[in-house]
Amino acid sequence: MDKLTDYRPFENGHMTRRARTGRSTAKRIALLAFAICALAATLGLGYRLGHSNPGLPDWIPPRLAAMLGSHSSHPAGTGPVIYYRDPDGKALYSRDTRTTPDGRPYVAVYASEDVSFDNPPETAAPAQDANSGAKRILFYRNPMGLPDTSPVPKKDSMGMDYIPVYEGENDASTIQIPPGKLQRTGVRSEPASLRVVTRPVRAPGTIKLDERRVAVVSLRAQSFIESVENVTTGDHVTKGQPLLRLYSPDVASAGAQYLSIVGDNSGTANLAGRKQLIDGARRRLENLAVPADVIADIERTKTVPLTVTWTAPRDGVILERTAVEGMRAQPGDVLFRLADTSVIWVIADVAEQDIDAVKIGATATIKLRSLSGREFKGSVALIYPQVNIETRTTKVRIELPNPDGVLLPDMFADVEIASGAEKPVVAVPNGAVIDTGARQIVFIDKGEGRFEPRDVKVGTRGEDYTEIRDGIGEGDRVVVAANFLIDAESNLKSALRAFTDGEKSK
User: Does the keyword field hold Acyltransferase (predicted)?
Assistant: First the structure.
């Protein structure tokens, strides 16, 4: 008590050594009490986590998680050791045992603790007797696809069980893929079916006049145009409609000769000779292209007209008029040019690689940019026997009716020519065919993750389906999605087989 009474914490404004020592001791006691409480709380948390949840939260530090995990009641892993991981939970793994820089061993990860999407390894089944009806196991193959087999069940260096190969499955060309991998990659198959495969050939086109329906009005003798009817370029005329009146000395002379022979009845004794004279005079008028109705008027009226009316030779639209009143027309001068537009042509420029798909008589659909919403149907009449060296296209002539005259020459058109088989053929989706350039293959789905590559001969390739002429039949299931995975597996298997065969030959 005297010491306590004599205790003076301050002397002259400064703490004494004894006071400082007492305060330091109190601080140590407080820190020790806090550490004891924190340790108790940590142990309690670890006990609860270990008994309630096999996994620890992410906010637990790695070393504390490893310490708590060691006291957890989570069941130990089963199966072979797959790999070893860092004890602190870092993304560090090892195939063999190893230690951290501070000497702590890596944690073993067993098969049951590893995440896998594949089916669990198949357990070896004893060989079945031939009379029991079950498939007999021929051998066991390497689970990684290596060219390694075993007559008895075994494991590889990674601890994976060898896969049994049953009787009827020993096909060197068959690819086996685990169902889990198929599900992840989205492999899908569907049966080949009978379909009408069409592929429209699209090409630009231009509307042209039918060359066989174009006519000109010209004279075969020197003439003078007396008058021209009220028709001009763009007007529609009918066959026999008057176009102009002209005077021709040659026509008048031939008409007078014909009239004199027809009207002369003195030489009736020689009827055969007279008939020849009449036919010769008439032929001269016809050679001058005098219309038949004008010759009939000469015979009927017994007079030669001063002027002759020239008529339209066919129905059509006047494309050109050069006839002018009072002009002198020389033989061969074109006075009128007209065309029948009831049937027109569409000249399409088809790419060189599409020419083989275009056939004579194929249906063509014409769409005009100036007549949106309207379609015109025609048929292929001719494939021109020449390829344009600059554009690498071939001209295809399409004929189609034009009854209302809305299709005008030199219009631009979009042409779509139907091609392909008219009858149903065996077809598969376009994605099912793998074209390597040298050959085309499809993968046949044999079920249970087994696939077989099959060479096929393709025909018409449509927008959605491809014709198969040889290799598969109707009902065969083919892979239509993710077949690149199966193709990669097939190539790997072939490469390994070739490597093994090369090793054996040495």
Answer: no
User: How many other C-beta atoms can be found within 10 angstroms of the C-beta atom of residue 338?
Assistant: 26
Give the model confidence (pLDDT) of 113-142 as tens digits.
Answer: 765 544 444 444 444 444 455 667 877 877
Coil, helix or strand at residue 384: strand
DSSP 426-448: EEEEGGG-EE-SS-EEEEEEEET
Instruction: Give CA–CA dist 158/95, Å, rounded.
Output: 9
Both tokens assigned to 220: 């075969």
Query: What percentage of the chain reaches a pLDDT higher than 90?
Result: 32
Q: Which amino acid is at 494?
A: S
Instruction: Dig out the tokens for 90 from the structure.
Output: 């870092």
Give the torsion sign (CA, 169, 170, 175, 180): positive
Distance CA 392, CA 349 (A): 9
**What is this structure's pTM?**
0.53
Residue with tokens 């102009």: 244
Domains of the chain and any CATH numbers: 1-74 (no CATH), 183-196+423-505 (2.40.420.20), 201-209+341-417 (2.40.30.170), 227-320 (no CATH)
For the beta sheet containing 163-166, the strands, ordered from the edge strand earlier in sequence to the opposite edge, are 149-150, 137-141, 163-166
Burial class (CB in 10 A: 0-12, 13-18, 19+), 277: middle
Kindly report the number of other CB atoms within 10 A of residue 486's CB atom: 21
